[in-house]
Specification:
This protein is of the alpha/beta class and about 350 residues long. The chain has 13 helices and 12 strands. The chain is elongated. It binds glyoxylic acid (GLV). Glyoxylic acid binds near residues 92, 115, 303 and 304.
Length: about 350
């Protein structure tokens, strides 16, 4: 093994130590210190003969944003010329600005698939809990409103799947895993909206409808779209106005696909009766006004917070790193680079 490092690992690994140990038998891996700062990282990236100057592939965890900041144009332009691939842990890669890396012909990979099941399970938990007003009931119980007020301790009465239409915005890997898990509950209808209708084999019994039709007919709106420039604040005041009064909203994708200030207003007015939220626009900062609302069933981004999911994500990221080093092509290239002819050349 040459002594010059070829892989830079950003962020700590929880479960894939064995898989990394196998990679380390073949390749020299450099991991950064836990007190790294963006300023120091940028400075070191630019050192012509520094310790990063021979790196070919960078693997980065979601949490490593605390050490380096976003992988934006400034970082892209500071990278040594040797860097050819950036491999992200996670399906959502909104912490990376793909365009500047693409301009430099640097491949970007993510880990779709590994997150689908665990995120969908969290989504279904939030969806059923929000439909039944469980967080309000629990809040009321903890605040002494029971006994004395009957079942629910003054919580509004919930809805059953048999009388409920679910609208899934984004029937991709996670959206389909949600649909599969919802089917046995016997919902009245499950509709979905994507930019284009899917092959019926991939629809899992969901009906394709326009965006406006979905907003009009759904009692529960389930969000599973990636965050990018075109989906940022896609759910905003005008969109809330087109929804049914008293709709339930569930989001396990990324907080910033919803305008959070508009959501707070919609929750206050009752337009949105309950929300199930695993993600927030400025997380880990969450407005205290939102946290205090009993009608919000909320979690601190726990969609993939399982041993199996984290291990799966870590191992899939390693597959991308190794795939680049062995074939010149990452295994799970991001959508934006899919048609680029420089990839793998
Ligand atoms: O949030 C989790 C992911 O993007 O995989």
């Amino acid at each position: 093994m040459s002594s010059a490092p070829v892989i830079l690992r950003l962020g700590s690994i929880r479960y894939a130590q064995e898989a990394w140990a196998n990679v380390e038998k073949k390749y020299n891996v450099l991991a950064i210190e836990s007190d790294m700062t963006r300023e120091k990282f940028l400075k070191e990236l630019k050192e012509p003969n520094g310790r990063f100057s021979t790196i070919k592939v960078i693997s980065r965890t979601y949490e490593s944003i605390a050490l380096t900041g976003r992988f934006d144009e400034e970082i892209a332009n500071a990278l040594p010329k040797s860097v050819k691939a950036v491999c992200h842990h996670g399906a959502g890669y909104d912490q990376i600005d793909v365009e500047p890396l693409r301009k430099l012909q640097i491949q970007v990979s993510h880990t779709p698939g590994a997150v689908d099941g665990p995120t969908a399970t969290t989504h279904v938990f939030l969806l059923l809990g929000a439909m039944r007003n469980y967080s309000i009931g629990s809040h009321n119980l903890h605040h002494g409103l029971w006994p004395g007020n009957g079942s629910g301790a003054t919580a509004p009465i919930g809805r059953d799947p048999s009388g409920t239409v679910v609208g899934i915005i984004g029937l991709g890997g996670i959206g389909r895993a949600i649909a599969q898990r919802l089917q046995p509950f016997g919902f009245k209808r499950i509709v979905y909206h994507n930019r284009e209708r899917l092959d019926p084999k991939l629809e899992y019994g969901c009906e394709f409808v326009s965006f406006d039709e979905l907003l009009k007919v759904s009692d529960v709106i389930s969000i599973s779209i990636p965050l990018n420039k075109s989906t940022h604040h896609m759910i905003n005041k005008e969109v809330f106005e087109k929804m049914k009064d008293g709709v339930c909203l569930v989001n396990t994708a990324r907080g910033a696909v919803i305008n959070e200030a508009d959501l707070i207003e919609a929750l206050k007015s009752g337009k949105v009766r309950t929300a199930g939220l695993d993600v927030f626009e400025f997380e880990p900062e969450v407005p205290s006004e939102l946290i205090k609302m009993p009608q919000v069933l909320d979690l601190p981004h726990m969609g993939t917070y399982t041993v199996e999911a984290v291990k799966g994500i870590e191992e899939k990221c390693i597959c991308n790193v190794v795939s680049y080093l062995e074939t010149g092509r990452v295994a799970n290239l991001v959508f934006e680079e899919k048609d680029d002819d420089w990839v793998g050349k």
